[in-house]
Amino acid sequence: MATPATGTPQNGLQRRFKGCSKIGEYEMLQKLGEGTFGEVHKARQRSSGNVFALKKILMHNEKDGFPITALREIKLLKMLSHDNVLKLEEMAVERPRAEGRKRAILYMVTPYMDHDLSGLLDNPDVKFQEAQIKCYMLQLFKGLRYLHDNHILHRDMKAANLLINNRGRLQIADFGLARHYDEPVPQRGKGNGEARREYTTLVVTRWYRPPELLLQLRRYTPAIDMWGAGCVFGEMFKRKPILTGQSDLHQAQIIFELVGSPNDQSMPGWHDLPGAEPIRQFPPSNGTMAQRFRELSPTGLSLIKDLMRLDWRRRINAIDAIDHPYFKENPKPMREEDIPTFADSHELDRRNARGQKQALPPAPAGGTVGVGPNGEWTGSGPPPNSWGNGDRRYGGPQDRGPPGVDRPPRGYNDRGPPRYDHRPPPPPPLEGGRRPNWGNGGNLPPPPGEGRHPLPLPPRYGPDGGDRRRNQPPSGDTYIPSYQGGERPRGSREPDERQQRRGSRDSANSRDGYTDERRPYRDDRRPGDSRGVARDRRDGRTRSRSPDRRGDRDGRDNRENRGRNDDIYRRR
Amino acid sequence: MVSAAGTPQPPRRERPRPPPPAVVEAEQQWIFVEDELLQAPSIVEGMAPEEERTLRRKGINFILQVGMMLKLPQTTLSTAAVFFNRYLMKNSLKPKPGYKPLHHYQVAATALFLATKVEENCRKMKELVVACVRVALKDPNKLVDEQTKDFWKWRDTILYSEDVLLESLCFDLNVESPYKTMYDMMKYYGVEHNKKLRNSAWAFLADSALTQMCLLFDSRTIAAASLYCGARMAEVSLEDDDGKPWWEIQHVKLRNIRRACNLMADIYERSPDKDEDANKYSGLRTPEDGIDFGDTPRSMEGVQMTGQELSQSQPTANGTGNATERGSEEGELDG
User: Fold this and answer.
1) What pTM did the predictor assign?
2) Cα separation of A153 and A221, whole Å?
């Protein structure tokens, strides 16, 4: 540019800046989702004709300006560039034409991905071959190797956060919980190292949460993401999450049942962890990994065991996982371009089906279930958003949330308003982070729900998938009673959530007096929650984004047609 | 942050990694040549360049004063100053019909507000607003609270200007702190306990925050220049690694370090010295009989290398490297 030195200043700068554009440069195609998480649109960039996903950033707390959680995520995403990490293309600004000062509406622009892993696994029409699973796992490990090598902990590894397009590419999404890791990065052959400083344990969706987090280790390492990758690996074979605990304590219990009880060899130092006490009561277990994953070859079994090793120091790191012999033996990993594309998988149908099945029995009144709705939710079904996966923050059911609820499309980092909340997903254990995880277990009454009505139990997966049906509510929508008609007033919820937020999640970040958007974890323990088991809600879920295919399955199940015309993504 | 997977293990300490490519790219779009600084929107709108520079300095002073009142760390303040300077490369401060610009203090306050969030040093909105009002009124003890009219004016301005600022910044929020980079470099060379060196380097960064340095050089170069300055003051020489001069190990071009130092020297020579320290930068100027790169404006006149640096840099910085550097710089600007 370099305008000549003598140039008159009148020219002004000719530079074109990248990173932010006007919303007018996009042509909105369709709304992909709407919910607590905000709105996600599919949009075409006028200049290039390419399709992107635009996620609106909700301004929750007007008085603190642009949400700090959104700033964090944008900062992180802007630093990253890797084939297996969802890219933030740019930001788009919409300036409302109105009198008076109005704030702009801001959108995050990311590539449009066709599916998320959780949705694909949910789709009975999609079958994964082992070679394909290997291809996805390799991509996942490459993405994780990149993140960890760049000192980033994702902290919300789960199938729902892995996006897949029809060209076989897998990308890690949702950095709402991610943070910088101030320690030496993992080295080949050396596990995941040890951390010197402490981080908050209020991270990771419960079903994917590693044992050391459940035991409240604060000096955790990239090994927490590797555990999640192990859960995802198993999930690809089982087609549903493999460890679906209903409380943190239960989660720990089923982990130890699967991989064996902790002892000084398998998990050195475990009994010094703050959360170790209740664990001692568990009956000893030798682990059932080999029986449970009979479909895996010996090397495959060794990989999952390496990923799900109790000792976080020796848990395999991403660098070594890529070199694992499992990926060298037959069947060899498929090439991305050879992966079959998935038809639109009749998502809508699936969604509707979900709607039907969701009918879950009302849960026992419990503590505050991680749901956000304040007292307004009095319905008899499971709370719309609760549980499960902590997706409350995504507005719910997104992933494996309660069945049937329309899940927001995944893949766009659109996870809700709350998504910026950096709240970890699963029904979080601690109230405000201050209570011991399972302090409330057993049969103690739930803590007062912060003024909210007690919520019913969240739906669960489980052997008794049938009971979903047994308890079917009269109409497909009962599941979300208060949202019926799609009318739930939106405003009523946010303020409440805001008030509940407190504290910062990381010790290092604590800021006095600054309340940001995160919500505290709520106690999800439900007393007497022995009934366990999850009701199967898998059927209901999908995440496809092709809402247009309605009707394909009409004949199959009439019940499923109910509510079909509702915008599937719409939750209220 | 990013390193090639196959990098051989460093013999004794982790080599500094180059910043991630995406961050470099984002930073590059905010690096200008000096002539471009004269085409900032306010100047194009008719403001005298001197006046524009003065307003920048006043705005940054405002940031520093409010920052001190709030006990904010220097790194946050330098980030805010970068935001402020960048904003002024895209928006004018000069009113014209139909356009009522933000006042430079308003921009500064908003930049500081955003920087506290980006750098995770949040302050209560109320505290920030109160400090702004006090600094703006030049009355550090003024009683300000929610009853004060100015309180709400400032608060609303900050909140409503935030998205304008974010848009102007293209959401490029990753500002590498030169303070941190400088400290990392010192630790790398084991000189972090050399008080003289440390203080000189720190002073360099603090002084440079008041200039438009951050629009001319990336923060790593500024950090390296401060280290260079400190090393000169303390008469310490920084060691080579594997035969490579220190600046290469730190991913910085010697030529840019020199330009940055000369710029500081220029500025201090131009302004009458208010304190005797001012002259310290004159010593940084590279002596007369150096190699002239032929392409450098004012600040590079008379650049030359001395002793040790001369011999080391000759092959790299002066040889072929020079022409290509220049070429790429222009290329970027064309974009």
Assistant:
1) 0.68
2) 8
